[in-house]
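Obj: model holo form, ligand = heme C.
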Amino acid sequence: MSFKTGTNPWILFLVVTAATIASQAQQSVAQNGAPSQCFIKSGTQCLVPSGAGSYAPTEVCQTCHQDVWDKHFANTPHSALLKGDQHGCQGCHGPAQAHVDGGGDTSKIIRFSTLSPQQTAAVCMRCHQSTPETQNFSKSEHLANGVSCTSCHSPHKSEDVNFLLVKRQTDLCYTCHAAQRAEFARPFRHRVDIGLVQCSDCHNPHGTETGHQVRTAAGQFAVCTKCHTDTMGPFVFEHAPNKTEDGCLNCHTPHGSTNPRLLQVNNVNFLCLRCHTPNANGAAPGIPSFHNQAAKYQACTMCHTQIHGSNFDPFLFR
Ligand code: HEC
Ligand code: HEC
Ligand code: HEC
Ligand code: HEC
Ligand code: HEC
Ligand code: HEC
Ligand code: HEC
Ligand code: HEC
Ligand code: HEC
Ligand code: HEC
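Output (holo structure tokens):
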């Protein structure tokens, strides 16, 4: 059903009412006349109560919410819900015949402003549970700390064309993560400010199986090697720490640093000597005695240039 502007509102009302009644009759046959009181169940527990009643015809919402329909729905990815019997708006707001019959009774419709983050997630997950990207949300740090799908996404009022985000990604993350904003303001940093790298390149905001919601690169051992493939190897002569669990973070900070190359310490020799000291208690050999720490031997990577691993030289010279 589509109405051109200028249609007499009374005709529109009658047409819609007729359609409503017809559809109600259809639905009560389909559902044995039992109006659903619960939109989302888990076993016998009701996770999200519905406004009650059966589904109204999809188009009927237009009669009173034309602005939402036209401006905040029609051009969004969710307009896909208008196809088939997905119930359009009611895919999220629940069966709404009682809301319509009540002339817009707000106690008979799902209103997100009244839902907890868990309840909101339950509604969204009706459709987004099976996507690998979002499937871990129930276990995420975000949900555990009261961050809701609607803290980051707005189906109607998105300010970012991508992914219905409430605002541009970096600004969005910074609204809550002030400490990281400070880290990314350091002199050496991943350029999230200009979008060269995004938080979501390294993190999955919907949660991961690993700590700190850090992504793993498929088939690789660390998120960093998704982009820095040359550091990944395998090398004939590996530099052992690169292949440990901490990997790159043995030597680099991920966000930003006051040291060039995002190194953890400002003098490269101090970094190396954390491990390469005879009594450092690790697998690393101490430096040879001719490495007196006079100027020449401080710049370790002047000679040991292939610090991430080498295919030619066990001492990582080339
Ligand atoms: C007969 C007119 C009418 C129809 C048809 C109608 N609504 Fe409403 N709706 C209203 C009115 C009036 C309000 C209350 C508005 C307010 O309080 O700002 C309302 C409120 C709502 C709200 C809550 C808004 C809030 O402030 O939280 C939602 C959600 C909603 N409607 C969705 C729907 C959906 C989905 C449909 C289609 C199934 C629909 N409405 C059909 C009149 C209608
Ligand atoms: C993908 C889920 C989803 C669909 C589909 C959806 N809504 Fe909403 N609706 C929401 C959420 C979430 C909010 C809370 C505000 C926000 O985050 O945008 C909301 C808020 C509203 C409100 C409250 C006013 C406001 O803007 O805050 C109205 C009215 C409304 N929706 C009507 C509709 C109508 C009409 C349709 C169909 C054209 C529809 N919704 C489709 C999720 C949905
Ligand atoms: C902390 C913020 C945040 C929260 C909370 C959040 N999202 Fe997202 N979501 C994002 C960002 C950022 C992206 C874009 C990711 C990217 O660039 O790959 C995204 C992408 C998506 C996508 C597109 C995924 C794809 O396949 O590319 C879907 C669908 C989605 N989110 C749904 C949800 C649902 C459903 C919830 C709640 C269960 C939720 N999101 C909670 C930030 C969030
Ligand atoms: C009734 C099913 C349904 C529900 C419920 C639902 N969505 Fe969606 N969602 C869809 C469909 C269909 C698409 C479009 C998928 C596509 O294009 O592949 C979509 C797409 C998205 C996208 C991706 C947009 C993009 O730019 O790629 C985001 C983000 C999203 N939904 C968030 C949400 C959030 C948040 C909620 C809960 C408030 C929600 N969805 C509830 C069906 C649903
Ligand atoms: C280049 C990859 C990368 C980018 C880009 C990135 N992160 Fe991280 N982030 C990480 C890694 C790796 C850790 C884990 C650090 C650890 O284990 O010590 C982390 C840790 C975190 C933590 C946990 C606290 C902490 O600092 O250890 C938060 C919060 C965080 N990041 C938020 C963000 C935000 C917000 C953005 C975007 C503004 C962002 N990250 C961009 C890789 C990245
Ligand atoms: C509405 C506030 C809010 C928004 C927006 C938000 N976060 Fe969070 N985030 C939190 C809270 C609260 C926690 C849990 C407490 C903490 O670790 O800081 C958290 C935790 C995290 C963690 C895990 C930290 C750890 O130590 O395990 C990462 C990573 C993270 N957020 C990244 C992001 C990214 C990336 C975005 C943007 C896409 C984002 N967050 C947007 C509030 C938010
Ligand atoms: C999405 C791709 C991407 C991911 C993932 C990524 N980086 Fe980067 N990285 C870049 C880009 C692009 C630059 C160059 C930045 C510039 O020129 O401003 C860079 C720069 C660097 C630099 C500085 C190089 C120089 O010449 O000064 C280091 C060190 C670095 N990254 C380490 C890491 C580490 C460690 C991780 C994992 C925690 C990581 N990167 C994950 C894209 C990425
Ligand atoms: C044992 C310490 C150590 C580890 C582990 C390490 N790096 Fe480095 N990395 C360095 C040092 C030192 C430099 C500076 C080299 C120079 O100045 O010539 C560097 C430089 C870089 C650069 C700058 C460009 C280049 O290749 O010289 C990037 C990018 C980089 N590392 C990424 C990574 C990634 C990704 C990992 C994990 C796979 C990693 N690093 C693991 C010590 C390390
Ligand atoms: C986190 C600890 C750690 C750090 C930091 C570290 N290394 Fe290593 N390095 C090791 C370990 C462990 C080995 C492997 C020893 C073995 O296989 O017997 C190794 C091996 C080496 C080797 C080869 C030695 C041999 O006998 O095969 C060289 C050369 C080397 N590192 C140089 C450096 C330099 C230069 C730095 C600083 C940029 C550095 N390392 C930082 C742990 C570290
Ligand atoms: C001027 C060049 C040069 C500089 C600078 C230099 N090295 Fe070396 N490094 C060497 C040479 C030459 C060897 C011996 C290779 C051999 O035995 O054939 C060596 C060997 C090593 C070994 C292997 C020791 C063993 O017993 O297996 C380690 C570890 C090492 N260097 C670490 C460092 C560290 C850490 C720094 C910075 C503090 C550094 N090197 C600076 C040239 C250098």
